[in-house]
Write a structure and sequence with these properties.
By secondary structure, the protein is of the alpha+beta class. The chain folds into 2 domains: 113 residues, PurM-like, N-terminal domain (60s Ribosomal Protein L30, Chain: A, 2-Layer Sandwich); 191 residues, Phosphoribosyl-aminoimidazole Synthetase, Chain A, domain 2, CATH 3.90.650.10. It contains 10 helices and 13 strands. The strands form 2 sheets. A 7-stranded mixed β-sheet has the order 8-10-7-11-9-12-13, covered by helices on one side. A 6-stranded mixed β-sheet has the order 1-2-3-6-4-5. Strand 2 and strand 3 form a beta hairpin. 44% of the residues are buried.
């Protein structure tokens, strides 16, 4: 291979996307809702979900889709996990502002309706609602021949939280402890690069995975017998973190030894990888000293694609799907609480005041902008 593969060469330029989103936001007008009225916006720079006023509470909203992971699912006719992916990409963002997801609506676009595919999507969305503990409150299916050439799935999630309890990052201080929550796999980002690497390797998704597929931090959804296939690994559904994060926030409002304001920041590690941490505060830095174990599929993708280490950590979650920044005094109690409910949560680093950047235990893995 003459040059290492990266996300941009696979067709997705993260920097260009960031500039385009900034242009979009800059062209938007201010809300017509006045402060103090239902629907008035709550300022949340860099937030993962939007907040609006609603009486004594706040409502939170997030919208996202599955992305090109759907192309692999369609090629294998395996749509059982994509509804979970769609749900996870939305509700996990709501958790980052301290909201409890309560409802979801989906949008399905197809070139031509197919009852079998829609039935599979419905079953997947039903399981997603169970895992996220939300109501599927509606949705839309659009047949768009000439506009879309294959299935696309996206959705919007609604959450709520008491006013005054939003997790905005304003309480972050140097010395806060970072707790990492393990991912279930690639989740739903970076699949343009995944597909390019698999094609370069000359493999089919029905082939036996050319790496170890078992890992203590995740369960693998199987649909074949014998050794796990490459397709089963790359299509493993995104982890939905409502359990245990919603329960952690509710416990912090009640009899737990820690309080709701001891959770200073929550970051969903999605597109942009570890650089997402920079969204939580305009000046503080993030030091990842003891990262969670890297899942085998990431090691294989990097090796076969010749992907640089920094690019891997900017494109993929690398085994850590969510990070909680918590008060150092209560970090041990919160970690113990989490480890009673999930496998693999661990302290991975701390917040520091030595510049607005993310630094990592691995040399060369450093980010100064999202």
């Amino acid at each position: 291979m003459s040059e290492p593969m990266d996300y941009a060469s696979a067709g997705v330029d993260i920097d260009l996307e960031g500039s385009a989103v900034a242009s979009l936001i800059g062209a938007l007008s201010k809300s017509v809702r006045t402060p103090g009225t239902p629907g008035a916006p709550v300022d949340l720079p860099g937030g993962f979900g939007g907040l609006i006023e609603f009486g004594d509470n706040l409502l939170a909203m997030a919208t996202d889709g599955v992305g090109s992971k759907l192309q692999i699912a369609t090629s294998l006719e395996q749509w059982g996990g994509v509804g979970i992916d769609c749900m996870a990409m939305n509700v996990n963002d709501l958790l980052c502002v301290g909201a409890e997801p309560i409802a979801f609506v989906d949008y399905v676009a197809v070139p031509k309706p197919d009852p079998a595919i829609h039935a599979a999507l419905g079953a997947s969305l039903a399981e997603a609602c169970r895992q996220a503990r939300v109501t599927l409150a509606g949705g839309e299916t659009a047949s768009l021949p000439g506009i879309v050439t294959e299935l696309d799935l996206s959705g919007t999630a609604l959450g709520w939280l008491p006013k005054g309890e939003a997790i905005t990052g304003e309480r972050l201080v140097a010395g806060d402890v970072l707790i990492g929550l393990p991912s279930s796999g690639i989740h739903s980002n970076g699949y343009s690069l995944v597909r390019k690497i698999v094609e370069h390797a000359g493999l089919n998704y029905t082939d036996t995975a050319p790496f170890q597929t078992t890992h203590p931090n995740r369960d693998l959804v199987r649909w074949t017998e014998g050794d796990a296939t490459l397709g089963e690994v790359v299509l493993n559904p995104t982890r939905i973190y409502c359990d245990p994060v919603v329960d952690l926030l509710n416990a912090a409002r009640g009899p737990a030894s820690f309080g709701i304001h001891d959770v200073h920041g929550i970051c969903h590690i999605t597109g942009g990888g570890l650089s997402n941490l920079l969204r939580l505060h305009p000046s503080l830095g993030w030091n990842i000293q003891t990262p969670l174990p890297v899942l085998p599929e990431f090691e294989w993708l990097q090796s076969v694609g010749g992907v640089e280490t920094r690019e891997m950590y900017r494109t993929f979650n690398m085994g850590m799907g969510m990070v909680l920044a918590v008060d150092s005094e209560h970090a041990d109690a919160m970690l113990a609480w989490l480890n009673e409910r999930m496998t693999g949560a661990a302290v991975v680093g701390h917040v520091e005041d030595e510049g607005h950047r993310v630094v990592h235990a691995l040399d060369g893995v450093e980010f100064s902008h999202y």
